[in-house]
Amino acid sequence: MPDDPTKNEQTTEAEAVDAEKTEAAVDAAPETADAEPETVPEAPPAEGSASDEAKAARGGSGVDDDAGATGDDGADDEPATSTSTLTVTIDDRPIEAPPGQLVIDACEDAGTYVPRFCYHKRMSPVGMCRQCIVEVEGPRGPMMVVSCMTPVADGQVVRTATDGVKRAQEGVLELLLANHPLDCPVCDKGGECPLQDQAFSHGPGESRYVEEKRHFEKPIPISDLVYLDRERCILCDRCTRFADEVAGDPLISFTHRGNDTQVLTFPDEPFSSYFSGNTVQICPVGALTATPYRFKARPWDLAQVESTCTTCSVGCRIVVQSSRDELLRYQGVDSDAVNWGWLCDRGRFNFEAVNSEQRLKVPLVRASGDALEPTSWNAAMGVATQLIEEALAAGGPAGIAVLGGARGTNESAYAWAQLADALDVPYRDAQLGDGLPAELLDLPRATIDEAAAASTIVLLGPDLKEELPVLYLRLRHAAERRTCRIIELSAVETGLTPYAWRSTRVEAGGSAGITDALGADDVKDQLGKGGVVIVAGRGNLAESVDAATASLRAVLDAVPGAKLLPAFRRGNVVGALQLGLRPGGLAGPRRSEAKNGSGTPEPPGVPAAASTTVLDAIGILGAAADGKIDLLVLLGADPLADCPDTDLARRALAGARRVIAVDTFLTDSSATADVVFAAAA
Amino acid sequence: MSDVPSYHVAGLVPTGPRIITSRFEQADGYTYDGYVRSGGYTALRKALTEMTPQQVHDEVKTSEMQGRGGAGFPAGTKWGFLPPDVFPRYLVVNGDESEPGTYKDRLLMELDPHQLIEGVVISCYAFRAAQAFLYVRGEMALAQERIAEALNDAYANNLVGKNVLGTDFSVDITLTWGAGAYIVGEETALIESLEGERGMPRLKPPYFPAAKGLYMQPTIVNNVETLANVPWIVTESGQSFHDIGAPSSTGMRMFSVSGHVKKPGVFEVPNGTTTFRMLFEAPEYCGGVRHGRAVKAFIPGGASAMWFYGEHLDLPLDKPTVDKAGSMLGSGAIVVMDETTDMVAACWRIVAFFARESCGKCTPCREGTTWLERILKRMIDGHGRPDDLATLLDVCESISPGLAWPPRQTTICPLGPSAVSPIASAVDRFRAEFEHYVAHGRPMDGIHRHAIHGAIHHAPIPVGVAGA
């Protein structure tokens, strides 16, 4: 059953096993409390260069950041009152524009598209391609300026379509095409190519270039995932700027000079960045192509649907693209609140698992022998029902436990929690002993945006570059722009250490070192400014959860008003925990209790949580190992691989009398199950 | 010419003191002993012990000395742009002289390095910089060597470093050199290069390094010749400097003349009053055009300048006058082409230089200059096409809209339009030569294709240095 991502939204009877839908994320969590993030602004589905096209309602932040870069962190260019707007005349139409906005953006907001190649909203402008030339009225008559380098000014008069502007834009395009091979028919970018599109919309129509074009070896691999075709390259500096400025991995750079300029890696150093795939997406020509997508499809043949990446708990907005019933590509969608169009390579390229031959396609049931054998959905459902009934009869609801659920959608987590509620099953946990106690979610929570805008970020826990890569990009960006200070408390150096204002090595789980580090005078002053966000997760799976919690307590004691941004491991772990797949949890948004406790009837058949011992995943596995669990339900959970205590997991799977697994693959854990349901992905 | 200023008496070659070339004939002028023996470092002593920084600055202001790097911006005024009370601030000495035909700074650095160092220390004192960087063009090995030696001697004699001459003024001078890129002569590209980046012009505002330059600190970038004048101004007063030359172009100024003259070389002449004709023909300067031929065209101020012709010979070497006539004096590199010169080949030679030196950052320059070079090369190789001339001008238009002077540009920096100027000049005046090439694949009769080599391709080693 090859998955068409466009069918992701279907809710059928298979919903019960739909633990792997791609719609899930931290930020898609329901509004359970007032502190919840607002719903992610709807970005339109990307067409190729998603980040270009996605013009979600932008808050001031992104724009101001860009302008800040222009002004070189000097506020000289920006009036002090950022609330006022300026009046700019664009092609004889007066419009309002915020101070610091670039002319190219002001034009676009006014509905006038100025062609561009090097300009990218999420990176500082460089004015290199010269395509976005417009005329601005100056003291000595109209001046040609590049609109990506020119901030708006009050009373400014901009003209984007005069004969002079058209001539200049056509001239630049002809020059860009001079050495371009024009191999569009065999180029993967053809059909979604800014150079192709803008050559049609703003180009001269034909080239007079009769000289020999530049020649380079046709595509050379610059990493395992990315190919570079220097003949197609128009040297816009987008990929190199991204690598340097956004990813912090300046592993590709311009070499040579003048007409021989080319983008290259350094000798014997591949472009081994965790974020290399973004360069493919933002390349305005077909110079950079990703190995998995090369020659697979034409853009106009792609079916696509917007979704959320579930590889980690950042929840990046993506567009899932497929052709001929085969998933072919993820592209980042520029979502202001989350990923700004970026994806990490792990998230971008892990779709290949979806197309795997080894995917489970039908349910499996352990036959009389020992082997798992394919069966029909009805038969598998029947066996599962029977197992549940047997378990209820044997040990009651306390003999059943549900583990996992973090890889699915909010809807599926809610459905599973409801099922658990209906059966009075108290034992559930979407984490696998690899996170922090679910109660921490009840603390005041910060969104990614709030963290990036905080004056101080306290990092406690995992190496974000390794575990939540796009969150690393966002925090790195904030630190690089000097809009925040990062205080890192970790046992080892992490990817963010070079950008931290203070980075202190603290003993894993130790709170004394944390108290000392946060007690230093200058740190105290910094924390005293308020607006502190703690990014917390488990720094090290070898340390106990108690130690990690103690560390967090120590930070919270030092910074009482801080908000928390959980840095958990699994895709939709926060959503699953909040919707009831938490130890002792109840189905449904906890909002119902908090907001209108009086009017809302308690969910039917819910046992008083206090009457049952609340067990988290480790406790559940321990109980199973002790033979106290009759039925263990694994929702995309693979304790043998994911639980820090593998031995415990092994004993638990052996100790549980029956196991029902819902999974995309036959993992070590699901291979021990009695019934395995094939999950969508 | 009617607009020759009245203070110039036709036929009389104006004279003036040898200000900065005074040690060019002194065999050991580049050594510390030789420099001190001929009066060196007295200006520094005077400035540090008898004058306040403001007084030194005022003298330079009074002199109205225009910067000698090419733009001709008054040095004293530039110093005044430093924001008060922002420290550290830097002086960067632009010794990356690479304009084809210019070799005055090289001689100053090779033959009189101490004079430059003295000027640097005095200037740093004047605008209170504690650190100067001497950026010398990569290819100038002898200049680097001699400056290094001079710097060591100056440090050893307490003329640079901590508490210069026992005063409480301290300054360090760091010698550094480029890797051979023309564009690094542009001040913001030079700053990038100093910072260890690729030498590409900066385009972020603020554009003026005096506000934010090296390491984003206030920075004065001055040309070698500019700073070499400072000791004399301190010794003799700014007014004395101002009294030389024309009021609009004060002092003595060095011009590098190359091409089809009998005696090419660097000459220090009164600024603003000497005419091109005098420079080319006077026996104490170039001694006339070779073989007694007529001047067909000459480049008045560096390869990027619009060309001048016979009717411009009597213009004085005066910045406003030359500007008004539609070109520039630039860095004082004058290239003379006699009547046998192949203008298409001359054009190609200059455009090829700019195409080679384009940094590749912005599209019109990177793609356009190379395209221009290829069309011209095809023409002189005999493979011209009928529409080549139109295409040539149209590509020029894409780089520099209007082909006007001063040039407008679609590029980041003026390098791209620099390649347009010679084409605009040559096509305007010698279109027939281009058309002849396209039609017949060879130059017009009486024109020697290889004549250009004497003029531009092999810039001659200066054979004579003359002063009035």
Q: Strand order of the main beta sheet of chain B, please? A: 9-10-7-8-11
**Total number of helices of chain B:** 18
Radius of gyration of chain A: 27 Å
Describe the global form of chain B.
globular
The most extensive interface between chains reads: A-B, 38 and 41 residues
What oligomeric state do the depicted chains represent? heterodimer
In total, how many domains does the architecture of chain B comprise?
3
What does this structure look like?
- The complex is a heterodimer of chains A (681) and B (468).
- Chain A has 681 residues and is α/β, with parallel strands linked by helices.
- Among the domains of chain A are: 57-176, Roll (Ubiquitin-like (UB roll)), CATH 3.10.20.740; 364-435 and 576-678, Rossmann fold (3-Layer(aba) Sandwich), CATH 3.40.50; 437-567, Dimethylsulfoxide Reductase, domain 2 (3-Layer(aba) Sandwich), CATH 3.40.228.
- Chain A is built from 21 helices and 25 strands.
- In chain A, the strands form 6 sheets. In chain A, strands 15-14-25-24-23-16-17 form a 7-stranded mixed beta sheet, sandwiched between helices. A 5-stranded mixed beta sheet of chain A has the order 2-1-5-3-4, with helices on both faces. In chain A, strands 20-19-18-21-22 form a 5-stranded parallel beta sheet, sandwiched between helices.
- In chain A, β21, α16 (545-558) and β22 (563-566) form a beta-alpha-beta unit.
- In chain A, α4 (163-178) crosses α5, α6 (238-246) runs antiparallel to α7 (276-282) and α14 packs parallel to α16.
- Chain A is globular and about 90 Å long.
- By secondary structure, chain B is α/β, with parallel strands linked by helices.
- Chain B folds into 3 domains: 32-240, 3-Layer(aba) Sandwich (Rossmann fold), CATH 3.40.50; 244-341 and 461-467, Ubiquitin-like (UB roll), CATH 3.10.20; 343-447, NADH-ubiquinone oxidoreductase 51kDa subunit, iron-sulphur binding domain (de novo design (two linked rop proteins), Up-down Bundle), CATH 1.20.1440.
- The radius of gyration of chain B is 22 Å and the shape is globular.
- Chain B starts with 31 loop residues before the first helix and ends with a strand.
- Chain A binds chain B through residues 70-72, 74, 76-77, 126-131, 133, 144, 149, 164, 167-168, 171-172, 174-176, 178-179, 208-211, 234-235, 254, 256-261, and chain B through 181, 198, 203-206, 212, 216, 355-364, 366-371, 374-375, 378, 385, 387, 391, 394-395, 397-399, 401, 408-412.
